[in-house]
Write the structure tokens for this entry.
Amino acid sequence: MGTAIAWHLARAGVTDVLVLEAKELGSGSSGKPLGGVRTQFSSPANVRLGARSLAAYRDFAQATGARIGLEQVGYLFLLRTPEEVAGFEASVRMQNELGVPSRMITPAEARTLNPYLETEGVIAAAWSPEDGYAHPGSVVHGYATAAGRLGVRFRTETPVTGIDLAGPNRTEITAVRTARGAIATSTVVCAAGAWSKRIGTMAGVQLPVEPLRRQIAFTSPLIPSPPRIPFTIDFDSTFYFHGAGDDGLLLGIADPDQPVGFDTHYDETWLPLLRTAIARCAPALADARLERGWAGLYEMTPDCNALIGQSPTVSRFLYAAGFSGHGFLQAPATGEIIRDLYLGVPPFCDVSGFDALRFAGVAERTELNIV
């Protein structure tokens, strides 16, 4: 998110852009995603962000000179209840109105797309053929390299420790304090992912973002080599898998008992949950050897939607955070939006619904297509 924003700002002619990174680029959540890029959401705003970003990822090499391993294998959601089907049918109608070529398909069609599937209990599926996945690390460094050519500076191993405010009501930013000294500035863009709440607090801005661990695993190379399959999600259990290169597969599942926290230790005690889901959904993979895995952090908000906007009380404090698992896939579009908010021009779509002030009351989950 930070490198995308920096690149868009620099490309628009904004000078003196500085990116502060607590460790190394991509060492936080940006280096740990599943890599999915999709347009299959239940809210129009997220569909627009996904579609805009997918188009940018298709053109990424031409725009930045970097290759990101984009594989448009499609996204396939498996549905097991009439309620799930009704929800996705409504979403597909809305997606089609916005130009997304998604459609509902039968279990038999789903198995044709992914021969690993056991479709007993599956009553329908939602399929979007233009979605897929890319390499998050390649995107981070691709944006960073291209931004560097435009004059953006990067300081790694530079954690932010405070934000200085001035003025009668302490509403004007004057500096960002770091472990390596203070940096004078009148503008801050917070794109700190799961750590964004801390940055907001430093400026007196409430960003309701909580960290939640998610884990994934990789199989050893499979014999025979796996076919080209969609990014497949069993919506009921949240089990998902797709190709991972080197003739292996990436697999994962959301642990419903995972507590909120910054723990990124890979813990193999979650594997029985994963194995149970594999046996149910893709029994041909039940005995596949899992040779490695990792843990990363979702940046959750109360309604599972992002925070994109600027503070009305602290001058020139902008934020892009809380994407609840969608930060990688929505980064290109968000980079554009933050650029436009900084420049004071209307973004390509209405982002007022992403304002952090929406949580003044009781929040309800508004994005349903979350895993």
